[in-house]
Design goal:
There is one protein chain. The chain has one domain: Alpha-D-Glucose-1,6-Bisphosphate, Chain A, domain 4 (2-Layer Sandwich). It is built from four helices and seven strands. A hairpin with a 3-residue loop joins strand 5 and strand 6. By secondary structure, the chain is α+β, with helices and mostly antiparallel strands.
Amino acid sequence: MGILTAERSIEIEAPRATCWAIIADLETTPEWQESMVKAKILESDSEGRGTLVEITSDAKVRAVTSRISFAYEPETKMTWEQEKGDLKWLKGSWLLEEVSDAVTRAVYRLEADTGRVLGLLVKGPVADKVKDMLTSDATEGLKRWAERRNG
């Protein structure tokens, strides 16, 4: 069993509303988060936000596909949890904190049980590299996308 826990925060020179619009638009996530290969909306809420999404990610040791349910606290927090997929379980979140009118702190958190087979591949220094790659890809991608949109 391989439990991965990772968290990374970053300050973004863009308003929180801009960052929120980007993370809440799940279909476009593969455009700014390189490790995400595909995001297919399976179910949406009344506001058109994806609530059940099939996501394929490149975890470097192999591609991982998961059906993930999302919950929203507009402009402050988005959480997700795997309902079905290649991992034993997966959950995560984005937390957006307003530093000022023009600066947002984004905190990205992931927790996963890779299961026995994938856990044999993802351990020790490899696990650290996977965690770093996944969290930096998400946070740096959001920063680039938001600041480009804001600039």
